[in-house]
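Quick one, T. Sequence first:
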Amino acid sequence: MTFFSAGPEDGFPVLYCHGAIGSPRWRTPELDRLIELLGIRYLVVNRPGFAGSDPRPGRTVLDFARDVGEVMSILGYRRFSVVGVSAGAPYALACGWALAERLVALAAVSPLGPAHGRGAIRGLRYRVPLVPFGRGRAGPALAGLCLRALGLHGETPTDAMIDDYLVCRRDWGFDPADVSIPVTLWHGGSDWLVPLAHARALAAVIPQCTARVTPDGGHFFYSRSLAEIVSSLVPDAHEAFGHQVVTAI
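Structure tokens:
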């Protein structure tokens, strides 16, 4: 398993669970400024198949949380916060289930909900047909077109993206309703990729959940609300930033 990091080694650790395209462009000037301002250690752990991490056939969402626990222990971090974005949100919630005693704060941004059980929603989930990417000869070509449209062709392993999506569509290995620690859900009301219904369904079953919605926010909500979200994960840091106007789900 590979990971990237930025910021001082003795800074408060914030773990970022990347979305479906992996972490090819996780670092931005805005993030670097925020890391310096807050003095945090920002870590990105790459899931199997992404950025040099070995594939892991048959894995579950929960398996990743257990791996995260081992990685953070090796790095010497006993307590830390986690944020997961889009397809990374299930993995962040898994950390909340498996590593509850070690988490200071947990945020799920533009979260993809489970396909089955409590917190699931009826009908189409992703509004982009990711599963057909893996069917027949047209699959890789179609995936390539989508990645080129995002400006990421050649940076994101298509097979890893498909596998990661399918992992999220299977049983996660835990029930979101059993996450016992406080969770903040952030979502854009105008998200066309992962509909707001995902966050609504999760908010309805997670016991200690605070939901924040920006009505005109889209799927790239995290990058546009970076300071507010990340500062909320760092002890005594969130008061330094103003808050957006949000509405309850």
